[in-house]
Amino acid sequence: MTESALHAAAGGTDRSPRVRFWRDLSFWGLLPSWLLMGLALILPIAIIAAVSLATRGAHGGFTWDFNLAGYRQILFNEGWTGELEFTPQYLLIVARTFALAGATTLICLVFAVPVAYFISRQPPGRKAALVYLVTLPFWVSMILRVYAWMIILGKDGTLPRFLETLGLPAGMSFMFNDGATLTAMVYTAMPLMVLPVFASIEKLDGTLIEASHDLYGNRWVTLRRVILPLTAPGLVAGAILVFVPALGAVLEPSLMGGGKQMMMGTLIQLQFGGGRNWPFGAAIAMTLMALVLVFLLVMALRAARREDVR
Amino acid sequence: MIQPHSTGAQKAIEVKSVSKSFGTYQALKSVSFDIGSNEFFTMLGPSGCGKTTLLRMLAGFESPDTGSILLTGQEVVAIPPHRRRVNTVFQSYALFPHMTLEQNVAYGLENLGWEKGRIRTRVGEMLERVHMAPMAKRRPAQLSGGQRQRVALARALAPEPEVLLLDEPLSALDLKLRQAMRDELRTLQRDTGITFVFVTHDQEEALDMSDRIAVLGGGEVQQIGTPTEIYEEPVNRFVADFVGETNFLDVEVVETAPGQATVRTPFGVALTVPATGTASRGRATLSVRPEKINLGDQAQGTVFEGRIINKNYMGGYTHYTLDVAGTELRASRRNASREGDAIPLGATVPVGFVAGSARVLAA
Amino acid sequence: MMKGHDVKHYPGLGPLAVFFFIYLYAPLAVIIAYSFNANRVAGVWTGFSTHWYASALNNRALMNALETSLTVAAVATVVSTLIALSAALAIIRGKNVRYRKLCETIVNLPLLLPEIVLAVATLILFSLVNVQNGMLRLVIAHSAFCTPFAFLPIRARLQGMSLDLEEASADLYADRWTTFRRVTLPLIFPGVFSGAMLAFLISMDDFITSNMLSTGGSTTLPVYIFSLIRAGTSPELNAIATLLILASLILATVALLVAARGTRENAEP
After folding, report:
1. Known PROSITE patterns for this protein (chain A) (predicted)?
2. How confident is the model at residue C267 (pLDDT cuts 50, 70, 90)?
3. CATH homologous superfamily for A89-276?
4. Which of B57, B63, B82 to mutate to test the interface with C (most CBs of C within 10 A)?
5. C-alpha distances out from residue B179 to B125, B195, B202, C115, C267, Å
6. Which is the most buried residue in A205, B109, B190, B245, by most CB within 10 A?
7. Residue A11 pLDDT > 60, yes or no?
């Protein structure tokens, strides 16, 4: 091809955005992610949405007869004669799930803020080392971090033994209750809270704290009116990072809470294991997903509004 | 006089009616000019005037919406940057941080497929030329701003481009270094004979280094000319204001002739001053540079009386603000002796300027 | 001596931080300590022994689970990192990408959904289309939820990299591929490396999805450990846990050091 013909061909494409889109290879770069997420994520979610409306099969599984039985079962028990009787059983599990996830988030926040502030005030070398120390447990398998608390709190565990030496009755166990679940949830989530909180405190301009004191604000006023408002985005990020996975927790309640103290995650798991009620399990899964998405949406809208104000 | 076309027989670059919009913002409005080969050509203008967009078009990082760009007579709009014999010295220098200086300078040559031995020779030669040879094995992070600047130059010049584009390369340097680099750049241009296209918002830099300057404003070429032409014969208010300092006086043109006009000044005196082309009668603006206005016993040309209402002592010279019959005039005076600054505030002194050093601007 | 008034100092933070770090590490220390206990009952200390390490290393089921986990994690890491890299390049560097935000959300989708929901949804899909191969199920699911973890560090690195460098490369006669190979990739490598490490970690650590999808022949390490825990705490389990903790800590340290060095060396001046 002659040089001028080449230019003519290239010049034709250069000014057309659509052709350039292809030439930029953006489409081909994005295609694999679309395929993977479409097949391994969006398609299964669409199917589970359908299954939540299907009918439970006689021997597990389901048949494609659409009704709301799965969702109805969350609130009502169907009696022998078909009458609906309100049962708070599953609603309690939803409430427990929110309570535990909320408590986890709050406890993590209360510890993360002062610790992150402390780390941000250290000289650079020590600061990096402390951030590394916060990150490190996150690399240890989650199941092992939960297991550690089973050893500590369980029968014959470290804590009961220690209390025994203090003269308290022997054979105490702190396992298989909401407190034990919460302990493990807080422990596994802590690094996820400290890191974003630290990142936002680190970015805080130190002269603003000095300016607050210069204008007669004491430490408490400065904390409440300068430090916390300015680091709010980091606190919110940390809260989302902790709260959302906590809503779907499975390991902590199934190991620490025992069979009785279920959360939504373990309830779903049960329906696809021993319980074998797929439509019901799918309905709870859809409920959990909806709750999470609503929460994220509210957070995103609030963040967007804050951006607007600034 | 306006010189939209270079005087040299050979043209390195021809920009023909180039327009460019970003969304609703029109960055360039049908810009045309030529750059001769071996020229040190500067595009001068405030930020947002379109000078960087133009430079990026020459390099190939942007393409014009309409119009064409010719490089040594060849249309290049559709040619991607890596096939244009044009190199750029970026404002940020854009040295590859993961490569040594040597590797940075060799990069372009390797992509051009030069043979290994030749690359080595050329890299050594270029680093030598910018006085960076002893640091060849270092990485950019270990260099000072001025050193990075030199390496960026060596890297861009190594492939012997037809045109070297420089995007505000001195803006990141401190004052002393900037002065030294100006001389060095100028020398480099003369020695290599490569066409330099230099973009800056610093009028002093432009006046000091360029063969010709294009003053850009609002996406349009306001004036093209030699530094003296730009400074002494600005064609409009924008150029007179952007390049150097000046006094603007509201005048009325009462008589015109090619290249000059007779105007009535606010002080009541009529003057015959130079103009661009033939000025039209009526209201106009007269521009007089502060250093062209003389005070006290140095007053010559047309002389008025003025009262000193403010003065700023700058060391080498003093700026005076004068009230001349209700109009404010700024004058600067070189402090040739220790007592040069002796005119006191509030004093009434003779104020004068030679009519030929003022200029009537198009309204 | 007069003590200066430091307005940025809040009293009591030091002791709190000390307590915090003890809290962070004490549980791990407890596992390690018990792993050297000679007694079969975990809580009763009867003497120092490395016996349980020997028995852990000879545990066939454990080694099989480890192999499964490593295989799945390796494949998922490669797949998710490549997909994340190409998506990041397209989203950050592509010129006319429409719906940029949507494309990014699609890649990050697994982060927005509770894992258990995704796990059961994938289980239903695989049982509907009859995918029985446990390894294949795990690799597909792991690749999907590892992708955002690989994507985020790569995107951050790419966003932090000045476009000037790529333009400089094009200006110096490098075509698109040469620019990618010699400038873009080396400079974003710390991000790619961090992303890959994170993907590997997330895959190795996964319990919820693996527990749903794994079949008899494809038990992953966390699923195996879960079954051991269910069977009751034992010193051998503590030994296994200790080995895994040490492996993770070493891996984490190496990863962080490599990433830090890469960042330092390639620091843009």
Report:
1. ABC_TM1
2. low
3. MetI-like (1.10.3720.10)
4. B82
5. 24, 21, 12, 62, 29
6. B109
7. no
